[in-house]
Design brief:
Blueprint: E1 5-8, H1 11-19, H2 23-38, E2 41-46, H3 47-59, H4 64-75, E3 80-83, H5 87-99, H6 104-116, E4 120-122, E5 135-137
Parallel strand pairs: 1-2, 2-3, 4-5
Helix pairs in contact: 1-2, 1-3, 3-4, 4-5, 5-6
């Protein structure tokens, strides 16, 4: 049996399928997804692509829980693999994005902090106070 071909995809691939705003491109994406399901290709989603998808869908005023559901659905498809980020980190980020109602980039920062074992963040953004296990610092630190 031949090894599946690894293909890196960008945000436009996910967005065409989700939005179906350019039907002929959405059709191509659906064919690509069938190939992934059949095991002939593995579709790799780089971390920045997730950010792009969240950014575009947020700009379209799609609710956060629907955006999170879309990304989760893509990551659960056969032949889809996150690239440069652990799937658990993505799911933690999605939980924080929805449950704590914070920006995607901040949710990703916190999920990475958890992954790397950090608890302190120096920031003026008070929404970090809503996240158990994270200690927000904004005072001057004496050396």
């Amino acid at each position: 049996m031949t090894e599946p071909k690894n293909l890196v995809i960008d945000a436009s691939i996910i967005l065409r399928a989700v939005l179906n705003d350019i039907p002929e491109q959405a059709e191509k994406v659906n064919f690509l997804l069938h190939q992934a399901e059949a095991g002939s290709v593995v579709l790799l989603i780089p971390e920045p692509v997730l950010s792009d998808v969240v950014y575009v869908l947020s700009g379209l005023k799609i609710p956060k829980n629907e955006i999170a559901g879309t990304i989760r659905a893509w990551l659960n498809l056969p032949g889809i693999v996150p690239l440069g980020i652990n799937a658990e980190v993505v799911h933690t980020s999605l939980d924080l994005f929805v449950d704590k109602n914070i920006k995607w980039s901040d949710a990703l920062i916190v999920a990475r902090m958890f992954e790397w074992g950090y608890t302190d963040i120096y920031t003026f953004d008070r929404h970090f106070d809503r996240i158990p296990g994270i200690h927000r610092i904004e005072e001057l630190i004496s050396t």
